[in-house]
Amino acid sequence: MYLQELKNSHKLIKPFIHNTPVFTSNLLNQISDAQVFFKCENFQRMGAFKIRGATNAILKLSEKQKSKGVVTHSSGNFAQAVSLAAYNLGVKAYIVMPSNAPKVKKEAVKEYGGIVIECPSTLKDRETTATQIEQEKGAVFLHPSNNLDVILGQGTAAIELLEDHSDLEYIFTPVGGGGLIAGTALAANLYGNNCKIIGGEPYEVNDAYRSLLSGKIETNKTTQTIADGLKTQLGDINFPIIQKYVTKIICVEEQEIITAMRLIWERMKIIIEPSSAVAFAALLKEKEQFKDKKIGIIISGGNVDLKNLPF
User: Stretch 72-100: mean pLDDT, rounded?
Assistant: First the structure.
């Protein structure tokens, strides 16, 4: 169903993204009792996989739409991704950010050419402000995870991973808004050889885990997790894809996320953010089930506040 769209998306965004490296570690293989291949999107442009989806979504717009610009609301990686993607393509980007977002993130968005509009920190305020800009400027709203072109763009990381290692039995990704895992699931279904998709999710924000159990989109009552990129929830476009193609979601404790993050920092000598560690933490949590399997893990990003490390 989505094969041609995925192929087209990958071809379209190639000039604007990095084909990121795939790393392995003998020690982490021993610790996990598996053969693990890390797709390092922490080396992607702007430091995370989200530039893929943002670039694809903007490229798919008509010339008339591009002339009016794009708008999104985000305090994190998608804000930077849309700003940089829009800058690369000569399109204006209006980025609605909560007033309490870290100054460093606001500055990063501005450096990438994004026009920052601050608002109160509630989701309702963010959505209202973005809608206002849509109406005033005629800008196209880009949702960080519940937009099919964004989802297809995010799936290109798994395409590249499977091109390098076509015999992967599982791919693990973190789960936040659902764009990455949905895109990965589509890519694995179309490019993999019976490759199954596993999500990793913090217990504190395990809406996706509960959504798969209940059959409807659940919400979170708390957002008390170190994995700040995973506090968002699934949408009506990505949830059906996740229902159809994701095998299971494994929930992990905060300390398990920190342990996995530290292992990757210390043993692989690479910087990853807490959200990225969730997928590896999920593998370690249920490693008996995946013993001796060939596993891919999407390291989703490396945008971490070095003044606020958990170890």
Answer: 93
